Amino acid sequence: MRHTPRKFPSVILTAGLAAGLTVGVAASAAARPAAPACAATSTVTVPSQAYGGPPTCEPTTDPIDLGEPTPGATDDWQTTETNGVGYAVPADWTGHAIEGDGGSGHEWESPDIAVSDEFGDLHWRILVQSPFVSQVMPVPDELNDIGFHASYIEVEGASEAVLVASQGGHWADSSVEAIDFEVYVQSGSTGVVTRFMGELPGGAEGQFLLDNFVPTIQP
């Protein structure tokens, strides 16, 4: 089925990660409306590293580690691809073509509504952009130094992959627990960097989705 590309409106998870990635990624994540610069993991704005200011983020979220995939649990997930990068998403999620600050790609949404507010009904979602326009991989140690929760992970077919993930209040409603994550994957054969990012339910449900989504990436 063909989808008409739509402009990325977005309120994706981390204006904060965007600020933090100035140390390792040139392009920033799409900013959510009226968000502080490091909202993803703190209550204090991070000065841009380009201006030489010291980091002032104080983490308020919990780190999320990648677990082992659950054998057979995702056999009914739909396999798909974005510009040659294959991955899988739950069978009942729907996708749309998007244009974001990180390049063209696809946004996938769950049928479940995460939060309803002045922005409308916000669903759990995953955004995929490949190639990611900056083509630079973040450095976990540098992100961790300014309050993020980042680590290298193993992804088949990748020369390098980085997970940045934490659980805390949803950016639109702090009373709703959510897992915010970004995965950067550099293809071992082409060198292309793909960015996956999204908001998943907090707790076991979101952990299940993250554990089983991430290992499906085939750069």
The radius of gyration computed from the alpha-carbon positions, rounded to a whole number of angstroms, is 16 Å
Classification by helices and strands: mainly beta
Report mean pLDDT, rounded to a whole number. 78
- N- to C-terminal separation? 23 Å
Low-confidence stretches: 1-56
Net shape: globular
Signal peptide: 1-39
Keywords: Signal
Write a compact overview of the structure shown.
Helices cover 11% and strands 39% of the residues. By secondary structure, it is mainly beta.
Topology:
Elements: E1 6-7, H1 15-20, E2 62-63, E3 78-82, E4 85-89, E5 94-100, E6 103-117, E7 120-129, H2 140-145, E8 150-152, E9 158-170, E10 173-187, E11 193-201, H3 203-213
Parallel strand pairs: 1-5
Antiparallel strand pairs: 2-9, 3-4, 5-6, 6-7, 7-11, 8-9, 9-10, 10-11
Signal peptide: 1-39
Keywords: Signal
Describe this structure in words.
With 219 residues, this protein is mainly beta. It is 11% helix and 39% strand. It has three helices and eleven strands, in the order E-H-E-E-E-E-E-E-H-E-E-E-E-H. The protein has helices at 15-20, 140-145, 203-213, and strands at 6-7, 62-63, 78-82, 85-89, 94-100, 103-117, 120-129, 150-152, 158-170, 173-187, 193-201. The strands form two sheets. Strands 1, 2, 5, 6, 7, 8, 9, 10 and 11 form a nine-stranded mixed β-sheet that branches. Mean pLDDT is 78; it is low at 1-56.
